[in-house]
Write a structure and sequence with these properties.
- This protein is α/β, with parallel strands linked by helices.
- It folds into 3 domains: 77 residues, Alpha-Beta Plaits (2-Layer Sandwich), CATH 3.30.70; 74 residues, VC0802-like (2-Layer Sandwich), CATH 3.30.2130; 118 residues, Rossmann fold.
- It has 9 helices and 14 strands.
- Strand 2 and strand 3 form a beta hairpin.
- Helix 5 crosses helix 9.
- The longest helix has 21 residues.
């Protein structure tokens, strides 16, 4: 059984009641990803972090990093918090991570009351590692180390990890209402993604290449996504009809700046969202490649 430490960012800025609701939504969305993949996991939380226990950390990271609200995830080694225990576990854990001639840094963080500070712990562990293998000619480099060793002390438990895998960030899916998005190009796909990143549930109307963009990539972020294929000529009316049927807060359109005035006239009182309106085509393509990579 492996343990993942899951971090989230913007949620921490909310008031306690809103934050608790967002955290519950985040946990439900993580569970939904595992359920959709036919996998199981166990979730637990402390202040500011979630922990996911699974029998396959590689697959678990692939699923967790698709969840909006997650800023990064790490596979961790979990140990009890005692100074002696941390010292012995870190030495054994770091052994295969520090090849001869490598530079390293110990990054220690601490939450709770302990007999040592974060700086004292980092200094002590770094010194012990330097003297443990004098023949390896290790060096400490706090600016640009080849290896970073993270030691996160959180109350009675301590977590060791050496890397972070980024997630999409933003807000958990479902905390900001519903929109209907027209996806007929990468610009439309990126726009729909950015609305999901702000917490909106999206109904996808696909036309032309949009069907593949949604089916091969965006649905990985939304278990049980609702996708409505449409002929390109019928897509705007399909979007309009679905927005009324679902009582959506607005529609998401793949507009360029010069197209907005005409679109505003056509759509009347309908709320229009176009997150990519200021993006160049090159910026859209770059964002889309990042999204494809996150989708795994």
């Amino acid at each position: 059984m492996s343990t993942l430490l899951v971090r989230y960012g913007e949620l921490a800025l909310k008031s306690p009641p809103v934050r608790r609701e967002f955290e519950r939504t985040l946990q439900r969305n993580i569970s939904a990803q595992f359920l959709a993949a036919g996998r199981t996991c166990r979730l637990r939380a402390d202040h500011g972090h979630l922990y996911v226990e699974s029998d396959d950390d590689t697959d678990a990271i692939r699923l967790v990093r698709r969840v909006f609200g997650v800023t990064s995830v790490s596979t961790v080694k979990e140990i009890p918090t005692t100074l002696e225990g941390i010292q012995s576990h870190v030495t054994a854990w770091a052994d295969p991570l520090l090849p001869p001639g490598s530079s390293f840094a110990v990054r220690a963080r601490r939450t709770g009351s302990h007999s040592f500070t974060s700086q004292e712990l980092a200094r002590d562990l770094g010194g012990r590692l330097m003297t443990q293998w004098p023949d390896r000619k290790l060096s400490v480099d706090l600016e640009t180390p080849q290896v970073e060793l993270f030691v996160e002390v959180r109350g009675p438990r301590t977590y060791l990890y050496s890397s972070r895998v980024r997630g999409p960030g933003g807000f958990p899916l479902g905390v900001a209402g519903k929109v209907v998005a027209l996806v007929d190009s990468p610009r439309g796909a990126v726009g729909a993604y950015l609305m999901m990143k702000r917490g909106c549930r999206v109904v996808f109307v696909t036309a032309g290449p949009g069907e593949d963009l949604v089916g091969a990539t965006l649905v990985h972020f939304v278990p049980k996504a609702r996708v409505i294929p449409s002929a390109p000529s019928d897509a705007p009316e399909t979007v309009r009809a679905l927005a009324g049927e679902t009582h959506a807060e607005g529609v998401v359109l793949p507009l360029h700046v010069e197209q907005f005035p005409a679109a505003r006239q056509v759509w009347g009182e309908t709320v229009l969202f176009s997150p990519t309106i200021a993006f160049t085509d090159e910026e859209v393509d770059l964002r889309w490649q990042e999204i494809v990579e996150l989708a795994g």
